[in-house]
C-alpha cells in the first residue's frame, strides 16, 4: 500500500521515524521539493499529518521525504505513478493542464489567503469537481498563497509604464497573462531558483506574495515593493494522494482523512499563509526595502489592463461543461470580494 512499506520510501530512513510512525499500521510518504522550514511544509503539511494521525487514532502516520524525488512540475505525475503516496504542487507549473484552477488566480479577489482558499475549496467541491481535472489521483485539497505583489531590484514602480519591458520572474498560471498585460516580460523559474536569477540580473524583479521574499532571501537583492490591494494575482496549489494508496485505506481511515482535508486543510493553509505574509512584510521593512501601496491612479491603470481577464476561466469552464459564471460568482461571494 504505502510507498514506505513497498519500496522503502527513498530518502526516508525508517530508523529516524518517530515512534508514532513506527507504531502505525500505515505510513504515508509525502514528496517534498521545498526546504523543511518553508511554511507549506512546516505549517501546513506537517500539522496536517499530525491531524491525520490523531483522526485515525494512530493507524495512519504521515512522513515527509527528506530529499526531493523530482522537480516541482513533476510532482503531480510522481504521485499519480506511485513514486510517493502524497504530494503537493503548483497547478501553473504545468501549463494548459488545469484550466479551471485559473478561477482562484484572478486579480483583486481578496487580501486574505484564508478567505480565498476556503472559498476555492468550496467552489472546487460544488462546481469544478465534475470536470475531473485531477483525474488519476485523490484530491485532498486546493488552496492559494497570499496576494501577489510587485518587487523590483532597482527601479521604483508607480505606473504601468514603469513595468513595460521589465523582465520579471513569474510563477506560471494566470500570473503569466497578468504580467504580459502589464507589458512585463515573464521569466519562468521555480521558487527555489529566484535568488539566482535576481542576483545574476536575469530578471529585474519578481511577482511574489510577501512571505516568499524574505523566505527565499531575496530581500537582500530587492529594493522596492508595491502592494496591490486584493492581489495582482494568486497561485493555485494542490495536495493529492495516489489513487491506489487511497483505495487501499479502510473506509474509517478514508473518512478520518477527509475530515481533516478539504475545507479544513484549505483553511489551515490559508491561515498559515496569512501569518507568513504578515511576518514577511515586517521582515522586508526590517531589511530596508521600500514598500508602498499602489496609488489610486496606478490601480486604475492595472484594472484597465486586466479588464476581461476572467474570460480565461469562463472559456475553460464552458469547454468542460461547467457553469463558469455561477462558479466565479460563488467564489467572489464566499471570499468576500
Description:
The protein is of the alpha/beta class and 337 residues long. It has two domains: 3-96 and 107-145 and 235-275, D-Maltodextrin-Binding Protein, domain 2 (3-Layer(aba) Sandwich), CATH 3.40.190; 149-233 and 287-335, 3-Layer(aba) Sandwich (D-Maltodextrin-Binding Protein, domain 2). The chain has helices at 3-7, 19-23, 39-55, 75-80, 113-128, 160-163, 174-181, 194-199, 212-215, 243-248, 251-260, 262-286, 296-305, 311-319, 324-335, and strands spanning 26-30, 60-64, 86-90, 137-144, 149-152, 167-170, 185-188, 205-208, 224-227, 236-242, 290-293. Strand 6 (167-170), helix 7 (174-181) and strand 7 (185-188) form a beta-alpha-beta unit. The chain is globular. Mean pLDDT is 92; it is low at 1-17.
List keywords for this structure.
337 residues; D-Maltodextrin-Binding Protein, domain 2; 2 domains; 16% strand
Question: Brief description of this entry?
Answer:
This protein has 337 residues and is of the alpha/beta class.
Amino acid at each position: 500500500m504505502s510507498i514506505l512499506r513497498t519500496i522503502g520510501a527513498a530518502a526516508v530512513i525508517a530508523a529516524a521515524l518517530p515512534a508514532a510512525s513506527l507504531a502505525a499500521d500505515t505510513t504515508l510518504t509525502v514528496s517534498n521539493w521545498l526546504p523543511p522550514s518553508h511554511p507549506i511544509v512546516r505549517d501546513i503539511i506537517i500539522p496536517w499529518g499530525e491531524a491525520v494521525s490523531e483522526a485515525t487514532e494512530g493507524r495512519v502516520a504521515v512522513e515527509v521525504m527528506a530529499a526531493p524525488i523530482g522537480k516541482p512540475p513533476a510532482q503531480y505525475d510522481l504521485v499519480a505513478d506511485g513514486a510517493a503516496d502524497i504530494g503537493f504542487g503548483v497547478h501553473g507549473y504545468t501549463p494548459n493542464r488545469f484550466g479551471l484552477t485559473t478561477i482562484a488566480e484572478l486579480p483583486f479577489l481578496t487580501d486574505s489567503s484564508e478567505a480565498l482558499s476556503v472559498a476555492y475549496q468550496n467552489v472546487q467541491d460544488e462546481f469544478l469537481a465534475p470536470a475531473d481535472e485531477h483525474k488519476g489521483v485523490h484530491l485532498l485539497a486546493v488552496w492559494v498563497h497570499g496576494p501577489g505583489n510587485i518587487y523590483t531590484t532597482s527601479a521604483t514602480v508607480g505606473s504601468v509604464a514603469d513595468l513595460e519591458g521589465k523582465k520579471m520572474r513569474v510563477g506560471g498560471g494566470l500570473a503569466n497573462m497578468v504580467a504580459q498585460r502589464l507589458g512585463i516580460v515573464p521569466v519562468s523559474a521555480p521558487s527555489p531558483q529566484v535568488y539566482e536569477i535576481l542576483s545574476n540580473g536575469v530578471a529585474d524583479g519578481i511577482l511574489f506574495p510577501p512571505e516568499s521574499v524574505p523566505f527565499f532571501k531575496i530581500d537582500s537583492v530587492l529594493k522596492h515593493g508595491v502592494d496591490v490591494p486584493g492581489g495582482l494575482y494568486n497561485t493555485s496549489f494542490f495536495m493529492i494522494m495516489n489513487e491506489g494508496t487511497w483505495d487501499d485505506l479502510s473506509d474509517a481511515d478514508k473518512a478520518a482523512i477527509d475530515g481533516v482535508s478539504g475545507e479544513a486543510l484549505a483553511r489551515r493553509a490559508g491561515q498559515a499563509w496569512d501569518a507568513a505574509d504578515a511576518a514577511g512584510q515586517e521582515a522586508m521593512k526590517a531589511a530596508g526595502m521600500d514598500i508602498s501601496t499602489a496609488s489610486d491612479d496606478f490601480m486604475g491603470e492595472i484594472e484597465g489592463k486586466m479588464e476581461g481577464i476572467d474570460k480565461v476561466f469562463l472559456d475553460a469552464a464552458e469547454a468542460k461543461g461547467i457553469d463558469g459564471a455561477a462558479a466565479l460568482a460563488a467564489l467572489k461571494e464566499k471570499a468576500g470580494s
